[in-house]
Amino acid sequence: MTVTNETQLKVSHLHMAFGGVEALWDVSFEVKKGEIFSIIGPNGAGKTVLLNCINGLYRPQQGQILFEGRDISRSRPYQRARLGISRTFQKIELFKGTTVLDNIRLGRHIHLRTGLLSGAVYFGKTAREEIEHREFIEREIIDLLEIEHIRDKVVGMLPYGLQKRVELARALALNPKLFFWMSLSQASTWKRSRIWLDLFWTSMKRNAGRRPASWLNMIWVSSWIFPTG
Q: How far is it, in rounded angstroms, from Cα 77 to Cα 85?
């Protein structure tokens, strides 16, 4: 994966306040294409607020957010998702009463082209589109993250680590250009967070030349500074 001089994401002078609490104050940074970029700080530093502003869940009072040169500061979350921005959450946000495969399929919803009526009939073009998306998930996501053995399991019955992997799979199923990985909470050890980063990095190298992991940008949001060696 090659880092270029082309800017993928540019955040300029972002301000976000909740009442009298300044969560973000004049935050600016750039992320180049092909770069793994880290946002590190203690609990309460504003990392999640910053991510929610970029993702569209919050609207900052001041500042600008550019994605591939396009101003997305006032775009809605689903519009940003369509542009290729996806994320995970620090607290797992899955539909725990449904299967692993169904949760991952939700990440493909923005790529569906059939309407409500044709989807209800499930015939012809609708069926073919469903099969194509399912094949993409099985080939590019389930195999990538090695979760074939749990694909038909109910998510709520899985241990925390596997649920976190399913959430990662759903984010990658969007086929993003820019991916935000929320690290585990600070209550977890830095070694566990490092395991997830190693898993993602190994998958990217192993699948060089394949989509989606070989070409997306990653922003790692963490409370930990990993020791070297």
A: 9
User: For residues 85 and 73, is the Cβ–Cβ distance under 8 A?
Assistant: no
State whether 46 and 122 are in the same domain. no
Q: Are residues 198 and 183 in the same domain?
A: yes
CB-CB contact of 56 with 26 (8 Å): no
Residue 93 lies in a domain: no
Is residue 182 located within the same domain as residue 153? no
Q: Rounded to whole angstroms, how far apart are CA atoms 98 and 156?
A: 8
Residue 217 lies in a domain: yes
Whether residue 215 contacts residue 205, with contact meaning beta carbons closer than 8 Å, is answered with no
Residue 9 belongs to a domain with what CATH number?
A: 3.40.50.300
CB 214 within 8 A of CB 150: no
Cβ partners under 8 Å of residue 216, min gap 6: 176, 177, 178, 179
Are 55 and 77 in contact by the 8 Å Cβ rule? The answer is: yes
Distance CA 64, CA 17 (A): 15
Range of the domain at 166: 98-175
pTM to 2 decimal places: 0.78
Model pLDDT for residues 173-207, shown as the tens digit of each residue: 888 888 888 875 544 555 555 666 666 666 555 54
